Amino acid sequence: MIVVMNSEAGDEAIERVVAQVKELGLSPQVIRGTHQTVVAAIGEERPGLLEALEPMTGVEKVLPIMDPYKRASRELRAEPTIVKTRGLEIGGKSIAMIAGPCSVENLEQIVSIAIRLKALGASALRGGAFKPRTSPYSFQGHKLEGLKMLAAARDATGLAIVTEVMAPEHVPMVAEYADVLQIGARNMQNYQLLQAVGESGKPALLKRGMSSTMDEFLLAAEYILDRGNPNVILCERGIRTFEDHTRFTLPLTTVPYLKQKTHLPVIVDPSHGTGKASLVAAMSKASIAAGADGLILEVHEDPKKAMSDGSQTITPAAFEQIMTDCRRIAEAVDRAL
Ligand code: PEP
Ligand code: MN
Known about the structure:
The chain has two domains: 2-63, 2-Layer Sandwich (Alpha-Beta Plaits), CATH 3.30.70; 83-332, Aldolase class I (TIM Barrel), CATH 3.20.20. It has eleven helices and 14 strands. The chain has helices at residues 11-23, 49-53, 107-119, 144-157, 171-177, 191-200, 214-225, 254-261, 270-274, 277-289, 316-332, and strands at residues 2-5, 27-32, 37-42, 59-63, 83-85, 88-90, 96-100, 124-126, 160-164, 180-183, 204-207, 232-236, 266-268, 294-298. The chain is elongated, with a radius of gyration of 21 Å.
């Protein structure tokens, strides 16, 4: 429910509404606007709530939040959420470019690619220290050592670090090194992980599960928001379909759809979305044109030698070209890069 207070309502009336919301078993969130204050009453909608809140002093009207995801919904918050951390800003006018290898391979590799990407205008460094691999025999990541290498790359460049966390019990360790905690597609509905990331206070980059609907995706974001963490970035990374010309099918309609339904920033991963380096540039440009707030791209000095996801990984030169081309598209859609 959204309780819209009238413009004369003072603090006392607002506090009484907050107390009543708690009494009803819902959790209150006071949002003070320039003209009016609203009290969001978050929880399951049920009969009787409207009748309990509408007659209260200072209340102008009470509206239900129709979407099942309450905190993520545009109905609750019209202005976009801008996630900011260490020079990375996602959701405002400027487009964020998160780039880096699929996996952190060694100290020299991650520091040198970070320096290169920083010079080319990247906004943050990605790199997996914990890798969710289909086969247990594939490289699983350097784990804590990989996190330390990422921290060294940050020290060398100032770039914010985006890295995946796979288990709730690893959240404190990964949060010690990362600026943004990535939750991978395979873990989008790992609710204990979502809650632990929510409690960490670190911004979260939530990837869409490869067979998840938009409601499931936004309800997963809701788990993080509901633990008091407002900084959630949504990432479309492609879904499973009958198509086999690409690794996944990358649906870009989700970008304008999500921008309508939620105030959270939305980015696209054309690397996993296509699985093919030759398709990454076109889908990067299309994503910005569709209204994405940023991209996350896999970049490696020598993609053929990458320890994971080499076939979808682009070179720094290709990244440079994408930056140039996306800058023109950004301008055309009234954004900056
Ligand atoms: C990754 O970013 O390297 C990754 C494993 O992504 P996803 O969870 O989207 O497959
Ligand atoms: Mn990858």
